[in-house]
Fold this protein.
Amino acid sequence: QKEVEQNSGPLSVPEGAIASLNCTYSDRGSQSFFWYRQYSGKSPELIMSIYSNGDKEDGRFTAQLNKASQYVSLLIRDSQPSDSATYLCAVKGNNRLAFGKGNQVVVIP
Amino acid sequence: DTEVTQTPKHLVMGMTNKKSLKCEQHMGHRAMYWYKQKAKKPPELMFVYSYEKLSINESVPSRFSPECPNSSLLNLHLHALQPEDSALYLCASSQDLNEKLFFGSGTQLSVL
């Protein structure tokens, strides 16, 4: 089982809709969870971090963490064309940071 | 604007060349990293410098060598690279090890 797994993509969503991305992880002792956004040809940019079970909202982004089920998700509300990017899930455990393969999101105007 | 500065943004080099990538962070962070990223793949950790200690991913070939002149600078020396080393090289820093990483703009490297 891979350390961090993300859904295969790409995910196409109409403008204004909600984009939902999921990430599962294998290390039950993982402590810190991050979502990065990466535009094509650019470097990753941290958009969310979450450390405890539940929801964390920041603008149009909501991260959800469920440690019992070992998943973390990212919701993008009111999706905009500028949200079209690859979203990388990253999980810290055993003093390592493991990245998922990423999910490409395409917002259709 | 990112506070992690990487130079150069693009680099083309032959297999016999020696070049260096430079990275500087202005946030007083205590950890700095070099990652390699191939197209449509996640970043792969190459080196970490934290608390004056350098940690190396053992799968990284010796033709890559890091240098940390001080806590805000982390350079990557390149020598006798292979075409398969062509990739986006990313520098990052964080206040605490493996916590919120802030990436520089990256160096797109092509080895001919």
